[in-house]
Structure formats: structure tokens, C-alpha cells
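User: Can you recover a sequence for this backbone? Please restate the input before giving your answer.

Assistant: Of course. Working from this structure:
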């Protein structure tokens, strides 16, 4: 499952800064359109206002033209031709049929079609023009000196009978005629304007069109303002666009940086799990990878924290960087890897067969181990496999629902099952592991309650001297009577406790219970033998272990000689110095110390040299199967000899047959702990063993038979009377023995 944040970052890392370009263009376009519409509207309003008077003038001129035409007034016609106003008449189709000028409009005749005042047609520029209009005998003569320039003079003349326009009037105005001056002043408000010549059309009823020149006047300062305003807006817009471009570019760069950071591991500087998860999942979902099988690995640097303690955290991190580089060098382009965190790496490898994969992983492991020359580093690797996805015709099918996190979790789960002492260091995930994991969870959930509820029971397995058949010791072995999980042998939970650390609690629990039992039996007058208690290897990290043991036993008040401590052979691989110190202190406090499982997988002859142990327990493996192997006998005989030379007593474990007992007795083995003599048993049965003291299974067998015969006679004698005694063989033998005693 891809997390939300991952999705977001993926999006971010993929987005390109130029994607915002169309948005900016769209924005500029919208602003332009808005400005355009606003300007147009302003211009239209301005034009309407400005052209109104001119249009009226042109329409009056048109009226005048029509009036003269209708009345055949030559004078008017003459006058219209004489005046310097620009006007002409078209036939409605754009052909000029009359006018005061040459065809001023011909070059653009096709465009003279509009009648809309507010959108007049610009024909061309001129340098000088007059506009005249007459209505009700009044005439107006406007003299413009220049188009595009300022209005120089405006003359207004009123004459009822006579229409005349004379340039000289301008002079009059200039000469200071007060009447005119007033008018001039009125009209002079038009000063400081700019003029845009336009053609205005006045349609005649017969379809002809009178076209006269009008001037669109704009106040220069207004125009300037407008221009400045437009320029400012334009410049601002350009700045805004540049700013937006830079910003979006920066933003994208920042986002990319963020995405890179999000995917970067801060210890190795390489890719982190988030990258691996997100990119790896996508990669595996691609059709092109569907026909390839992949393996996902969890590589764990065993005891990385200890490495950091021994050297330094900085050293540890440097080594992690090296490992990261090493991984990169040993993978191909279609594979990937990342630093998961702490001391774990996630790796995705292409694979063909399981054998080939394991071989490659082993090689990889060797290369990683060589990354720290002169220093001992070890790795545990868990593997989960992602098979190729092809149908029966060999066609690729996309792995749509790949869950890399789950696969990696499986690899981790597989890796977690490896014990510290595992030699291969490689574990492939399978369904049994799932079961084992579930069981582990179940046990873990119940462990504390089990201690509180005293669900753990101490079983005692007696140790006998094979030469005398006398009880000479016992080992305390745990059993779990769980209300929900049932009766459990230690193999079902001890390895789990060893892994999760709860074993230290259990060892204390057992020690306390054994001490209590021994104390009770001592007080009851039993003839006690030492009972050995297993102390897990995990305990040896605690430097005050000897004191902890002493205190627990002292709290109960059991004499130390009745408690023996068993250390498993693997414990001797840890810090030897510390171990020697603990052993010596235990001995100082009066506890005997034994080496458990001697000869099981580890060669600890060397440890024997340094460890001042009291007892050597030969592993059950020596006595498994047929015991006619002379080589095996030689090894056992030599081991016993060796122990004797080192002043250690020997205990042979797992002895089941008479021949082995005889052989061991001959070799001078001090004790035998095995089914031949007794299986581990609950405390009440062990009490009977203590009472009997001597045990000879052969004699027991005979006694058992005798007892049975006796019992039959008795049964016959008592005919139907119930025996209160237990009916199992073991107690019958014991009763018999007790009787004889
Ligand atoms: P271990 O300490 O080596 O204990 C001896 C194991 O060998 C016991 O198994 C015992 O029942 C078995 N055994 C003894 N004689 C014979 C024999 O003749 N034939 C066969 N087939 N087996 C024999 P158990 O009780 O199942 O304990 C298994 C292991 O669990 C122990 O091996 C020990 O490592 C661990 N364990 C048991 N109790 C404790 C405990 O209280 N603390 C710790 N730390 N570990 C414990
Ligand atoms: Ca043991
Ligand atoms: Ca053992």
C-alpha cells in the first residue's frame, strides 16, 4: 500500500516547472482580454461623447445637401463644393457619386458600409479640414489647421439669410471680436485635444449615404494618462509574468529538492526505504518486469549496536556507508537497494532458481563481510520471493497488486528466525515461518501472565552415578502448564524467550523455585543432591550476574552447595573475560558451575583451557543412535579423561541404554542424566527419587515383575478390595524399593 505522503511526493518529484507555463499564458491572456474590453468600453464611451457633436454636424451637412438638392439650390450645391469640408455621397454600395473632393475615400471604398456612429471608419489622415453644417439657416464653420494636431481656431458665425463661410472670419476671431471671442472661448475648450479623423455616415431615404469627416477628439492629457496607465499596467503585467515564472521555477526546484530529501537516507546518503518502496513497487508492477522473478532481501548487520559500542557510532555509520556502496557495486541496473534504517538494508534482486539465488546471496554476504577488513562483522539475510507472473501461454501479466512492504516484512520475519549462532545466516520465507511467527506472538502475549500465574513448573531430571546407581544430582527443566496453550515442553517457548529476552526472567523464576524446593526439602529432612539450573547465554551481558544469582538463593536461604549453574556452550563464545569473572565469582560464592552441551556443534576445547569449570556435561549427541561406534567411544573416553585431568566432574546426557551406562561407568563418568535412569519429572515424583536414593533400572524391572506378581496374589487374597496406592509402574517399583529398604 502506498502511503498518502508517498503519493504526494511522487507527484511532486514528477511535476515539471514548465507545466505552469500554460497557466501563466492563460492568466496573461485573461488580463489582456479584460484590459482590452475595458479600453474598448472606455474608448466607445469616449467616442460616443466626442463624436456626437461632429455627427450632428455631418447630419446637418447631409440635411443641407439634401435640402439644396431637393430645392435645386445651386448656391447650396456650390457652397458645399466650395467649402473645405470633407464629404461625399455614395450610392449605398460604396461607390462615390458626389463629393467636394477628389475620391478621398476610393481607396477604401469597400469599407464604407457602416452606419454606426460609435464605430466610424477611419479613411485616412489629412492635414487640414473644415467641417460645416447648417440648420435652420444657421451655419457652423469649424476650421482645423491640422489633423492629429491641436485645434487652432474655431469660428462660430450666425447669419439668418445667408450662409457663408470665410476664412477671413478666422482672422476676425483672431483680431479680438468680443462676440466671437466668447464663442471661441467656448469652443476653445476643445483645445489640447488630439483629433482622429473618422468618417461618419448619414443614410438618405433613397439608399444613398452621405459620408462626412468627423473628428474623434481626445484630450491629450487624458490620452497621456491613458497611455501611461496602459504602459504601467503592461509593465506591471510583464513583471508579474516574470515573477510568476521565476517563482514557479524556484518552487519546482524546491519541490524536487524536497522529493529528493524525502527519498534520501541521512546516514548513508543513498536511497531510503521510502524510495525503495515507492519506486520498487512501481517497477515490479510494470508489464516488462512481469516475466522475471525477484527476491526481496532484508540484510541485517548482526549486532550493529555492539559494533558501535566497540568502535564508535561514527565508525558504525561509516561502515553502513561502505556497505551501501558495496551493495551498489554488486547489483545490476534492473535491481535496487536502500538503507532501511538502523542496521538493515532492503535489496531487490533478479532471480532464476532458488539455488542460484542462495549462491548469489552468499557471495554478496561475503563481500559485505569483507567491507570491514580486520573487523568481524556478520550478517543475517532473510529472503522473500516474488515469482514471475506469466500465464500458461507464457504471456506476461502485470503484477498489479504487488505489496513490497509485505514482501519485505516476510523477508524480515524470515531473517528474525535466524538465531545468533546460525551458521548460514540466510533464511528464505515460507508458510511455516508464518505459523512460527504466529506462535511466537501468542507465546509472547502470554509470557508475563504466565509468570504471574505461576504457570511454569519445575521438572527435575535426576542424575545418577553409573557405578553405584546412586542419585547424585538433578537438573531443573522447565515446563509450561498454560490454561490456553496446554502443556508445553521447553522447546516450544524457550527459544522464543531467548530471542525476546524474557529468558532472563525465566531463569530467575526457575532459580527461585529450585532454591525454594531445595530449602523446603532440606527442612523436611530429605537427603539433598545439588540441582543444576540453566542460565541462558543472554544473561552474560549482565556483569553482576553472579551477585543476582547469589541474592536470589540467599533470599530463600538455600545453602549454595545445593545449587549448580549450567551454562550452555554457546555462551563461551561471547566475551570470555567477563564469563571467566562471572564463573569465578559464582565459585567464590559456593556454586558449582557446569558447561552444558559440551561437544554440540561448537569446539570449545579452547574454552576449557580458560574456564575454571566444575562440571562438564557431555552432549546427548554423543549417545544418539547406535553406540557401537568405536570412534565415538574414543572421543567420549578422551573427553572424560580430559575433564578429569582438568579436575572437572563429568555428566553424560541423553543416555538411554544399558551398554552406554556400562561404558561410561568404565570410563569413570561421574553422573548420567538420561532416560535410562529417569525422565524429567514433577517435584513430587522427584521427592520419591530422593527418598529412594539408589536406582538400578535392571533391578527395578525385576522388582516390578515381582511386585506385579505379589500384587496379583494380594488381589486374589483381598478379592475386590481397591488399592489406594498409584497403579503406575514407577510408583509400584518405588514402593517395592522402599519396602526393601
Ligand atoms: P538441556 O539443558 O540440554 O536439557 C536436557 C534436555 O535433554 C531436556 O529436554 C531433557 O528432557 C532431555 N533429555 C535428558 N535425557 C534424555 C534422554 O535420555 N533422551 C532424550 N531423548 N532426551 C533426554 P527438555 O527438558 O525438553 O529441555 C530442552 C532444553 O530446553 C534444555 O536442554 C535447555 O536448553 C532448555 N531448558 C529447559 N529448561 C530450561 C530453563 O529452566 N532455563 C533455560 N534457560 N533453558 C531451559
Ligand atoms: Ca541444561
Ligand atoms: Ca544439555
Amino acid at each position: 500500500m502506498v502511503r498518502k505522503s508517498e503519493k504526494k511526493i511522487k507527484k511532486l518529484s514528477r511535476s515539471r516547472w514548465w507545466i505552469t507555463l500554460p497557466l501563466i499564458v492563460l492568466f496573461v491572456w485573461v488580463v489582456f482580454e479584460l484590459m482590452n474590453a475595458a479600453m474598448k468600453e472606455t474608448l466607445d464611451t469616449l467616442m460616443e461623447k466626442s463624436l456626437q457633436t461632429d455627427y450632428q454636424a455631418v447630419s446637418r451637412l447631409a440635411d443641407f445637401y439634401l435640402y439644396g438638392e431637393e430645392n435645386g439650390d445651386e448656391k447650396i450645391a456650390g457652397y458645399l463644393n466650395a467649402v473645405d469640408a470633407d464629404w461625399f455621397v455614395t450610392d449605398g454600395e460604396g461607390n462615390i457619386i458626389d463629393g467636394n473632393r477628389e475620391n478621398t475615400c476610393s481607396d477604401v471604398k469597400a469599407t464604407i458600409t457602416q452606419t454606426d456612429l460609435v464605430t466610424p471608419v477611419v479613411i485616412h489622415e489629412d492635414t487640414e479640414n473644415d467641417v460645416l453644417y447648417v440648420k435652420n439657416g444657421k451655419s457652423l464653420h469649424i476650421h482645423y489647421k491640422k489633423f492629429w494636431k491641436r485645434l487652432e481656431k474655431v469660428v462660430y458665425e450666425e447669419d439668418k439669410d445667408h450662409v457663408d463661410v470665410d476664412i477671413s472670419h478666422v482672422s476676425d476671431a483672431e483680431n479680438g471680436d468680443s462676440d466671437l471671442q466668447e464663442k471661441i472661448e467656448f469652443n476653445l475648450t476643445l483645445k489640447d485635444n488630439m483629433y482622429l479623423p473618422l468618417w461618419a455616415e448619414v443614410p438618405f431615404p433613397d439608399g444613398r449615404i452621405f459620408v462626412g469627416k468627423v473628428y474623434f477628439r481626445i484630450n491629450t492629457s487624458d490620452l497621456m494618462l491613458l497611455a501611461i496607465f496602459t504602459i504601467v499596467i503592461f509593465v506591471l503585467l510583464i513583471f508579474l509574468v516574470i515573477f510568476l515564472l521565476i517563482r514557479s521555477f524556484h518552487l519546482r526546484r524546491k519541490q524536487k529538492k524536497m522529493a529528493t530529501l524525502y527519498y534520501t537516507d541521512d546516514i548513508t546518503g543513498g536511497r531510503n526505504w521510502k524510495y525503495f518502496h515507492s519506486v520498487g513497487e512501481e517497477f515490479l508492477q510494470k508489464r516488462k518486469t512481469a516475466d522475471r522473478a525477484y527476491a526481496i532481501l532484508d540484510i541485517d548487520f548482526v549486532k550493529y549496536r555492539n559494533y558501535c559500542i566497540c568502535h564508535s557510532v561514527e565508525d558504525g555509520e561509516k561502515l553502513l556507508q561502505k556497505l551501501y556502496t558495496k551493495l551498489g557495486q554488486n547489483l545490476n541496473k534492473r535491481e535496487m537497494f536502500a538503507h532501511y534504517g538502523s542496521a538493515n538494508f532492503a535489496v531487490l534482486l533478479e532471480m532464476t532458481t532458488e539455488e542460484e539465488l542462495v549462491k548469489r546471496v552468499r557471495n554478496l554476504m561475503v563481500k559485505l563481510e569483507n567491507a570491514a577488513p580486520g573487523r568481524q562483522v556478520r550478517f543475517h539475510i532473510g529472503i522473500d520471493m516474488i515469482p514471475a507472473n506469466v500465464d500458461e501461454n507464457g504471456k506476461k501479466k502485470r503484477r498489479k497488486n504487488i505489496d513490497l512492504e509485505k514482501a519485505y516484512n516476510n523477508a524480515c520475519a524470515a531473517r528474525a528466525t535466524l538465531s545468533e549462532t546460525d551458521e548460514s545466516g540466510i533464511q528464505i520465507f515460507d508458510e511455516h515461518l508464518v505459523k512460527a511467527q504466529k506462535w511466537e506472538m501468542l507465546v509472547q502475549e502470554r509470557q508475563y501472565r504466565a509468570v504471574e500465574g505461576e504457570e511454569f513448573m519445575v521438572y527435575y531430571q535426576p542424575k545418577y552415578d553409573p557405578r553405584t546407581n546412586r542419585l547424585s544430582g538433578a537438573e531443573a527443566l522447565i515446563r509450561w502448564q498454560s490454561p490456553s496453550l496446554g502443556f508445553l515442553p521447553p522447546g516450544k517457548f524457550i527459544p522464543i524467550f531467548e530471542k525476546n529476552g524474557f529468558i532472563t526472567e525465566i531463569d530467575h523464576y526457575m532459580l527461585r523455585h529450585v532454591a525454594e524446593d531445595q530449602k523446603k526439602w532440606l527442612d523436611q529432612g530429605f537427603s539433598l543432591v545439588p540441582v543444576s539450573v540453566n542460565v541462558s547465554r543472554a544473561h552474560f551481558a549482565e556483569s553482576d550476574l553472579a551477585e543476582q544469582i547469589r541474592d536470589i538463593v540467599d533470599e530463600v536461604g538455600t545453602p549454595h552447595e545445593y545449587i549448580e549453574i549450567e551454562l550452555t556452550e554457546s555462551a563461551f563464545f561471547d566475551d570470555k573475560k567477563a564469563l571467566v569473572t562471572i564463573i569465578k565469582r559464582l565459585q567464590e560464592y559456593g556454586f558449582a558451575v557446569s558447561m552444558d552441551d559440551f561437544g554440540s556443534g561448537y569446539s570449545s576445547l579452547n574454552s576449557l583451557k580458560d574456564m575454571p569449570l566444575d562440571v562438564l556435561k557431555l552432549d546427548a549427541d554423543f549417545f544418539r543412535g547406535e553406540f557401537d561406534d568405536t570412534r565415538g567411544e574414543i572421543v567420549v573416553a578422551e573427553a572424560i579423561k580430559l575433564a578429569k585431568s582438568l579436575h572437572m566432574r563429568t555428566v553424560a546426557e541423553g543416555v538411554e541404554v544399558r551398554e552406554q551406562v556400562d561404558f561410561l561407568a568404565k570410563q569413570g563418568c561421574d553422573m548420567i542424566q538420561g532416560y535410562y535412569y529417569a525422565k524429567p519429572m514433577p517435584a513430587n515424583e522427584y521427592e520419591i527419587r530422593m527418598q529412594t536414593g539408589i536406582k538400578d533400572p535392571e533391578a527395578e524391572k525385576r522388582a516390578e515383575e515381582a511386585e506385579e506378581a505379589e500384587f496379583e496374589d494380594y488381589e486374589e487374597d483381598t478379592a475386590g478390595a481397591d488399592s489406594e496406592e498409584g497403579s503406575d509402574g514407577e510408583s509400584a517399583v518405588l514402593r517395592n524399593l522402599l519396602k526393601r529398604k
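That completes the design. Residues 475, 534, 566, 596 surround calcium ion (ligand 2) (CB under 6 Å).
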